[in-house]
Design a protein that fits this description.
With about 270 residues, the chain is an all-alpha fold. It is built from 12 helices and 2 strands. The chain starts with about 20 loop residues before the first helix and ends with a helix.
Length: about 270
C-alpha cells in the first residue's frame, strides 16, 4: 500500500485485491462514503425545500388528473372548491409534509451519488477486470432507477382509481397530503429498487457466482420470486402496480441472462488458445 506524505494520515490506496486494509481503515473509508452520501441528500433536500410548490404540483399531478376526469364526488371533495383535494388534519402537518417531501426527494435525487459511493467502497476488493465495469454499472443503475420511478409515476393514476373505486359506494374520499406524498415516494422507491434486479444478476454472473444457464434453468422459480417480491415491495398493494412492476422485472430478468451470455462468450474467446 502507498501513502502520501502530508501532515495528516492519508487514506490507503489499494493497487490490487491482494492488498489488505485494517479494520480501522475500512471503518474510516466507510465513514467518508456515508458522509458524502449524507451531504448529497442534504443538498438536494434543501433544493427541494426552495422549490417546494412546483415539486408538490408534480407529485399531486396524477391525483389531480384523476379527479378532473371523474365526477366531482369521485374524489370526495366539494365541487365548489375543486382546487382543494388534499387536506391536512393537524396544524403541524404542513411543516412535516414539507420536510418529508424534502427528505424523500433528496434521497431519490441523491441516488446517483449514493450508488457511486457504494461502488467506490467495494471497488478495492475487485480485480482490474471487474473495476472497468464501474461506469457501465453505475450508469445502468441510475437509468434503471429513473425508468422505474417514471413507470411508478405514470401508473399511479390507474392505481389510485382502482383503490378509490374499491372503497365501496357511499364512502367519501378525504386524503391527507402527508399520506399521499408518502405513498408516491414509496411507489417511486419500490419501482426504482425493483429495477436494480437485473444489475445485481449481471454482477453475479460477471463475478462467477451465477451462470446464465443456471438462471435460464430456474426461470420458473425466478418468475414466482419476482411476483412475490413485487407484491411485497409495492406499497399500494393493488394489482395494477403489481403487474406494472412484475412484468418489466421479468423482461429485465431475461435481458440480464442475455447480457451474461454475451460476456461469457467474450470471456471464452479471450482464454481460447490461438
Amino acid at each position: 500500500m502507498s501513502f502520501r506524505r502530508s501532515g495528516r494520515a492519508a487514506r490507503p490506496r489499494l493497487r490490487s485485491p491482494d492488498d489488505t486494509m485494517t479494520l480501522t481503515e475500512h471503518l474510516g473509508e466507510l465513514r467518508v462514503r456515508i458522509i458524502r452520501s449524507a451531504l448529497a441528500v442534504m443538498i438536494f433536500a434543501i433544493a427541494i425545500v426552495a422549490f417546494y410548490d412546483p415539486v408538490l404540483d408534480f407529485l399531486t399531478g396524477p391525483y389531480e388528473r384523476l379527479c378532473n376526469s371523474k365526477p366531482p364526488d369521485f374524489c370526495g371533495f366539494d365541487a365548489s372548491s375543486p382546487d382543494k383535494r388534499l387536506f391536512i388534519l393537524d396544524p403541524l402537518e404542513g411543516v412535516t409534509t414539507r420536510l418529508k417531501v424534502a427528505s424523500y426527494g433528496g434521497l431519490i435525487l441523491a441516488m446517483p451519488v449514493i450508488l457511486w459511493q457504494v461502488w467506490r467502497f467495494i471497488v478495492p476488493a475487485l480485480h482490474a477486470r471487474e473495476k472497468r465495469y464501474a461506469v457501465p454499472f453505475i450508469l445502468s443503475s441510475i437509468l434503471l432507477f429513473i425508468l422505474g420511478g417514471f413507470l411508478a409515476y405514470i401508473t399511479l393514476e390507474p392505481a389510485l382509481e382502482f383503490l378509490i373505486s374499491w372503497s365501496g359506494e357511499g364512502v367519501g374520499q378525504v386524503f391527507q397530503v402527508s399520506r399521499y406524498i408518502r405513498l408516491v415516494a414509496l411507489m417511486i422507491a419500490a419501482f426504482g429498487v425493483g429495477f436494480q434486479f437485473p444489475v445485481l444478476l449481471v454482477f453475479l454472473q460477471l463475478s462467477g457466482v451465477l451462470t446464465p444457464r443456471q438462471l435460464l434453468r430456474g426461470w420458473r422459480y425466478a418468475l414466482l420470486v419476482i411476483v412475490v417480491v413485487a407484491a411485497v415491495i409495492t406499497p399500494s398493494g393493488d394489482p395494477i402496480s403489481l403487474i406494472a412492476l412484475a412484468a418489466p422485472m421479468t423482461v429485465l430478468y431475461f435481458l440480464s441472462i442475455g447480457v451474461g451470455l454475451v460476456f461469457e462468450r467474450r470471456r471464452r474467446r479471450v482464454i481460447a488458445p490461438t
